[in-house]
């Protein structure tokens, strides 16, 4: 993989933290607004890569299949400035 300053590519080594950061930014922007969001998953496959523990012991890998939904609702409220 070549090195690039293009922010649209995701480095596989940093992908989990990049996705967490993206989701955190989205949630921060949605907080305090009156809205409801639902994300539906149908056969979403998550491959957890092979890993070794700190002592070199094989921890293994996993493949998860997710069906369901995530729903969140945000509500704006007035801040009491007493």
Structural summary, described in words:
This protein is of the alpha+beta class and 82 residues long. It has a domain at 37-71. Helices cover 20% and strands 43% of the residues. The chain contains 1 helix and 2 strands; from the N terminus they run αββ. A hairpin with a 5-residue loop joins β1 and β2 (58-74). Mean pLDDT is 75; it is low at 1-8.
Strand arrangement in the largest pleated sheet: 1-2
Tally of helical segments:
1
Distance between the termini: 56 Å
The helix/strand order is HEE
Largest sheet at a glance?
Answer: 2 strands, antiparallel
Low-confidence stretches: 1-8
Could you list some keywords that capture this structure?
82 residues; alpha+beta; elongated
Topology:
Blueprint lengths: L14 H16 L4 E18 L5 E17 L8
Antiparallel strand pairs: 1-2
In brief:
It contains 1 helix and 2 strands; from the N terminus they run H-E-E.
